[in-house]
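Homework help thread (please don't just give me the answer)

Our assignment gives two proteins as sequence + structure token strings and asks us to describe the second one. The first is just a warm-up. Here they are:
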Amino acid sequence: MDRIGQRWPAYSGLVPWALLAVGVLVDVVTVPEVSGGPLLVLACVAAGSIMTFRGTVRVVVVAFVLELLTGLRQGGPGDPREIVGMLYIVVAGAVALDLNRLLSRYGKRISEVRTVAESVQLALLPEPPLRLAGYDIAASYRAAQSEARIGGDLYAVHDTPWGLRVFIGDVRGKGMGAVSTVALLLGAFREAAEDLPTLEELGARLDRRLAREAPALGAELELEGFTTAVLAEFPHGGQEVRLLNFGHPGPYLVAHGRARALDAEVPNLPLGMAGLGQEVSPHQEFRFPPGSSLLFVTDGVTEARNPEGVFFDPARGLEGVSCSSAKATVNGLLTRVDAWTGGVSTDDRAVLAVAH
């Protein structure tokens, strides 16, 4: 069932035919008490789940003819074993054709769901402008749930009177509650980023907004909902970046083939946990010279594992990655992560780069 809506590898179409060939070989080279009929039945069912409807029909017809010929060779017309074997093929063929029809129907439905989900994702997380406030920008989003292609990671960039502001976060949980939280936070950020002069005020506004709206987002988010996030500000014409961290993986400064994590000295609690009474810690400033890129990630990157279970280390994995543009930095990171994990993703993965 995991293959619904996906294409099988080209060579998989040979599997039913190989099963037919092995089944005939078993009937020919073994004693009459040993039958290759079960392999013919298996070939029919395999064809129904792998091949097209017409391809399945061909395999079922060939299996029926082969069962008839081998039955005639071994027992002659009217042999009970031949009759039973042919009935098996008829039943297996009917099951295979019905299975093929069901898989085709649900595959189309999943494709429709993916199309709708992609439209929702583009509405919530549109591609940022390639150039904004004098900075080069690129972003990528990959959801772990391939059927939905949307999850709880978020990012946004906005040019304000105080500089270019960046917001990246990771909502706890999945499903519609997480999507609703993403929409809430993005709307609040775009509104408040224009009005509030400091990152501390902006973070406090997002925290209060999430805490206030949590009851409307579902029981789980009301009790345990929070969002890790990083707010960044790039002053116009400056060579520094201001960072305010809310329990999120820090960004990585990539320059001259080296990468350095800009972790917070005193990270704040995640957004939505204002009720615990912690004051918002001051932002930190870091140098952001020309020719460098600042790469923001979610835990889908920092917690990506290789087959041995070892976590990916972006600081080491980004060594040698080009920072000539934001797009090059994002593509370089994703290529390294895919190589590390073998292309397997178990969590949403959002990446955003700002190049100077």
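The one we have to describe:
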Amino acid sequence: MLYLWPESLWLLLALPLLPAAYLWLVRRGGKVAVRYSSIGTVRAAGTRSWKRHVPPALLFLACSLLLFAAARPVARVPLPWGRSTVMLAMDVSLSMRVSDVKPTRMAAAQEAAKLFLRDLPRDIEVGLVTFAGSTQVAQRATLDRAALVTAIDGFQMQMHTAVGNAIVLCLAELFPDHGIDVGEMTFGSGKSHGRSLDEQPKGPPKPIAPVAPGSYASAAIVLLTDGRRTTGIDTLEAAKMAADRGVRIYVVGLGATAGTAPTGEGLPLYLQLDEATLREVARMTGGLYEHAGTAEKLRTVYENLGSRLAVQTRETELTGLLALAAGLFMLGAGALSVVWFRRLA
């Protein structure tokens, strides 16, 4: 636990004075009671002797919490996810026909993505980007889960793998005012992949002031791929753009890491998953890398990602919470004093 105002912790040294003052008052009051009270009053006091200490104890706890609150403590606590948009970037290259992940990588990825949509909180918008040799916005960010499922079922596979382009296109969707154009960055000629032909080229991306990786609290990218970049924007260059904007990238590597595997047509296909680069993408952006070698593992990964995006452990100031608890202890002390003794503590 950290404290924004640690110098205020010196006030805790005054805490022992409170029980000392209370004990002095109890002893002084006891002498007065013995001198002036009737026997009946003494017997009644004896039957509820423990009760008289409860309200002061609650007040002592309240004061302790307020002194801790004055130091403005900060701790990492699980809280509901504050982001509002998740971009799913899914590989649709021809290697997704491979059947080492049953029934095929593509079918397993589609089912896992649908499961992810089902488990994700309904108030989080989801956008869908597909990538192979080119990148496409299959579905802009929406709360309509049925539209997303339809887009997932309509995947069309292509040659090559442009991982960097997928990341950049997700960023273009998340930050439409940043002037990010995939075609311009790829070819330098104003060509824009995944966008309408009547859209004008935007030129170079808008200069931004970099922020801490993973600090953007309104969006994240979930990237699934089974290979390595073969064309397009450099993957780590794209990851740097995401890191500078504070966007986390959660990466899922699918299938075999190297070698050959059969396609759906029975033909062997050379495969090589670039785990080193994908891990670096996750590290640079403050995200997470997971490898899924089977359909069951892929479903588990997506389930875990859904839970991670629903609840995030974040550094949160606890001052307000401690002050609220102190107020409740004070109210409890006052209520017990009224109920038990017909007076306030």
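TA reply:
I won't write it for you, but here's a hint about the kind of observation we're looking for: Confidence is low (pLDDT under 50) at residues 33-37, 190-201.
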